[in-house]
């Protein structure tokens, strides 16, 4: 058994897609692992293939360091089967020669960890792993993340990694390290205690413009279109004071003012969780702002919570509405009804939120969904004083809606997850149409 702690390289891979944008997107899970490994005495290095601020990249507006912005991109051939889609396909992220130079500069690793996110982004994962293998032949590559968990067999056959860690999480990482390097780490704390973990290793980034926050894991709902319950079967939360301490740390140590909640169920049991968090933030008197790209549950919002969110600094508030066909939504979810939505909208507007800060996600492209349902939903949301935000449906394995998606799709999405790409509306029988996108966009913007 090797007694020497290994050197581990962590890599956030390229994206291959029709479009990609840094919409408060950071590889939080990978940076949690980086901090965990460092805490336990292992050597780490980190490469982000999506680094918008790479030294070789064209200069961006300096203000973009503190929020969203476009990735560098290079046009590449479309996957087979997409030749009829009248859109360009690109590799998003740093150029391959920049990656090669970065790999030359890191210490030779004993193990490489690669993460993954969208299932249909696996071609970018595969290209990244191929590049890593050319630079470090013989070094084992362990693939984890969402794609690895939802499509384990496909990932094992097509991603190019030596092993696939499907949904194992931090708790089993040390077993993989022992298997692949011979080194056996010993836990210094209970891995089931979210409050015991070190803060994610955001210091490994070239710039810390904003901080993603994960105050809880899991979701009590089992929505037909969402894989949260499969990915995180058990709901766990951090202590509110621990979350406040983390916000204070990043603000005081690194000057961060923008914080992004990555929770799937941020507002559940508000009096025990989000209320003490926000009251603690207000008490610190730090000038911070919050964003919720993952959306929050509407049913928990009342006048008191709306006021508290405004005072705490919620700047981008997204609501998980999905549809306004309330009489037929039981097949999708049971997380909000019409009365709860309308009351929440009134509370938020009375608190002082305006439509530029408030958005409600509406799913488009569901199996069997007529486009007229989406259009009616847009009008209903606009009438409530909130901005509609169209979210293109992505078919996801292990969800209740997956069989219907398989039956409705014009692609063989079971055989190849690349065809679940929401940009092509894979479950709409008429297929991708600029006219539909333009019609919805114009409807959202009218008035």
From TrEMBL:
Keyword Coiled coil attached: no
Gene Ontology cellular-component terms listed: cytosol
Keyword DNA repair appears in the UniProt entry: no
Pfam families per the UniProt record, alphabetical: Radical_SAM
Name of this chain's protein: Radical SAM domain protein
Source organism superkingdom: Bacteria
GO MF, any single term: catalytic activity
Domain spans labelled B12-binding: 12-187
Keywords: Iron, Iron-sulfur, Metal-binding, S-adenosyl-L-methionine
Domain Radical SAM core: start-end pairs: 203-426
Cofactor(s) listed: [4Fe-4S] cluster
Organism: Desulfococcus multivorans DSM 2059
Classification lineage: Bacteria, Pseudomonadati, Thermodesulfobacteriota, Desulfobacteria, Desulfobacterales
């Amino acid at each position: 058994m090797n007694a020497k702690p290994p050197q581990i390289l962590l890599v956030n891979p390229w994206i291959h897609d029709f479009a990609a944008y840094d919409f408060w997107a950071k590889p939080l899970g990978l940076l949690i692992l980086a901090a965990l490994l460092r805490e336990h005495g292992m050597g780490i290095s980190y490469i982000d293939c999506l680094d918008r601020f790479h030294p070789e990249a064209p200069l961006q507006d300096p203000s973009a360091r503190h929020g969203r912005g476009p990735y560098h991109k290079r046009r590449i051939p479309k996957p087979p089967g997409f030749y009829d889609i009248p859109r360009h396909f690109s590799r998003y992220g740093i150029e391959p020669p920049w990656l090669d130079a970065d790999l030359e500069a890191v210490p030779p690793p004993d193990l490489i960890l690669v993460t993954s996110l969208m299932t249909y982004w696996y071609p970018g994962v595969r290209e990244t792993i191929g590049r890593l293998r050319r630079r470090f032949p013989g070094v084992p590559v362990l693939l984890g993340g969402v794609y690895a968990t939802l499509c384990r067999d496909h990932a094992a056959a097509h991603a190019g990694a030596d092993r696939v860690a499907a949904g194992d999480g931090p708790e089993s990482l040390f077993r993989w390290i022992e298997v692949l390097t011979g080194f056996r780490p010993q836990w210094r704390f209970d891995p089931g205690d979210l409050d015991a973990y070190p803060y994610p290793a955001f210091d490994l980034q070239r710039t810390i413009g904003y901080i993603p926050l994960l105050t809880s894991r899991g979701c009590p709902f089992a929505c037909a279109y969402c894989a949260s319950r499969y990915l995180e079967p058990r709901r766990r939360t951090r202590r509110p004071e621990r979350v406040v301490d983390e916000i204070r740390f990043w603000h005081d140590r690194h000057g961060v003012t923008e914080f992004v909640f990555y929770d799937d169920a941020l507002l559940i049991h508000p009096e025990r969780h989000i209320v003490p968090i926000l009251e603690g933030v207000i008490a610190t008197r730090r000038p911070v702002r919050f964003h919720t790209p993952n959306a929050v549950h509407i049913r928990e919002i009342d006048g008191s919570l709306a006021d508290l969110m405004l005072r705490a600094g919620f700047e981008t508030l997204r609501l998980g509405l999905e549809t306004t066909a309330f009489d037929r939504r039981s097949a999708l979810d049971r997380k909000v009804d019409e009365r709860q939505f309308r009351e929440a909208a009134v509370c938020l507007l009375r608190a002082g939120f305006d439509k530029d800060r408030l958005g409600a996600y509406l799913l488009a492209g569901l199996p069997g969904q007529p486009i007229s349902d989406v259009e009616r939903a847009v009008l209903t949301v606009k009438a409530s004083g909130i901005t509609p935000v169209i979210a293109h449906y992505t078919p996801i394995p292990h969800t209740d809606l997956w069989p219907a998606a398989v039956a409705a799709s014009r692609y063989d999405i079971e055989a190849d997850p690349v065809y679940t790409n929401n940009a092509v509306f894979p479950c709409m029988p008429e297929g991708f149409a600029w006219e539909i996108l333009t019609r919805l966009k114009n409807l959202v913007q009218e008035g």
